[in-house]
Amino acid sequence: MKYYFPYGTHSALTLEIPEQTSCYFPHSFRHSVPLKKISELLSRRLNSPLKYPSLRTCLMEGDRLVIPVAPGIPHVETILAGILEHLFSENSLHTDPSDPLHKHTHHYFRGKIFILRSSEDVNHTGISDEEFRQKIFKKLPKNILEIINSTFHVPKNDFSDHACHDSACKAHGCSCTSDSDILENSENTALLTVQTHDPTQKEQLALLGVRENDEPFIINRLLFDADFILPVAEFFPQKRRGYYGSAAALYPLFSDKNTQERFHNRKNTAFADELHEVIRLLGVTLTLQILPNIPVFSTSLLQKKKKNTDSRIADIMVGSLESIWKTGTFRYHQLWRAPAFPKAQIVLASITGGTETQTWENITHALLNAAKYAEEDALIFLACDISSPAGPAIQAYSRIQDPNMTIKFLQKKNFPDTILAKKLIPLLHQTHVYFISPLSEDFLNTLNISGLENISDLQRLISHTSSCVFLPDAHRFI
Length: 478
Description:
Layout: E1 2-7, E2 11-16, E3 22-24, H1 38-47, H2 55-58, E4 64-68, H3 76-87, E5 112-117, H4 119-125, H5 129-138, H6 142-151, H7 166-172, E6 192-196, E7 205-210, E8 216-220, H8 221-225, E9 228-229, E10 232-234, H9 257-263, H10 272-282, E11 286-292, E12 313-320, H11 321-336, E13 344-350, H12 360-371, E14 374-383, H13 392-400, H14 403-411, H15 418-430, E15 432-436, H16 441-446, E16 449-451, H17 455-463, E17 467-471
Parallel strand pairs: 3-17, 4-5, 4-9, 5-6, 10-11, 13-14, 13-17, 14-15, 15-16
Antiparallel strand pairs: 1-2, 7-8, 11-12
Helix pairs in contact: 1-3, 3-5, 12-15, 13-14, 13-15, 14-15
């Protein structure tokens, strides 16, 4: 029987599994949200959040809406465009009746929207802020673009004043600018600004408050000045290093360098009170979280033609922080609880998605999960598109190449990936690990990993094994 096993963004393995081989792989509980349906689903969720009013009714005219985005969001431009589409699909926003244009205009959102990106996301994707902004607008339907353009048709006599529509211009004596499209007018950033957070730039930071030990809470200035904050993150139910639950798209991601370093190499539970206090001080009560789905895993070669339609999104959840935590935890466990498979001679794991998911942290968790199903002297294969350099702790192991000496060396260092490296190094030393990836074999060999260039070698090994476990997106299992 032939199996299709996706990894990366557009890559897949097609393997022939002998009938006598015991083969185990998880089944998703539901299909992924179709790419074309993401905006429609998002609109429904924003209209009826869990235990929260509609986003549209929460925003007042002139508000500064800040959307901090955590790294690793699949189809993030489509999701952000869906938020814009929601805001401009109906004219039900709160407005000031004393506004002279109140009776002459549709009441679409006329505030400012700021999208806050992390430096990690920019480093992984290589997409500039302006390119990211344009990608969002290109995802919008034409009718929404026309509404945005007319809503932000700005009078010449006061560029910073209210936007006006052509139908009201003569009645109120406005002398308007030309009908240049909002996407092409570099001066007109009245609607959407995209900014990458730099934790080392003081002009981007603000003092949010003071901790009990008289140390400051430092946060990005956009968040400090926001009227409403809508964090966007991918849901994960456990306190994994680097994931901070409701604060995943807030803190320390958008704090200063000292705070970020302080969070490194310590258990997340040590910062629970601090995280809750930051959320309270910012007034964050609504969140948007993506529930990831198990990638399409098909026994049909025809599925190979459809791989680009798999969004890898099981659902989009919008609601109060507490309701999303409860609902998301239950649903995540339904999808991603580690299956009760027997141990096997070969374990084939993968990491799907673009550069935002192809990280060494995900590689570490994928290999740790795969090792749970590996017999003694089993072979573990990881298919991924990792191209980013390893962190300093893993790089140290590649130079020292002795696990005990490396761990002793790391005890004296405060590297961001030290905790992960301490888990990964013993596994690499004790297990036969093979990578199907763009990484050079010379570098992999310094980590005690073998590179697999010829997939026929994998097919040959599978043809002679008695048992095999497949773990698509192995880093997500809990």
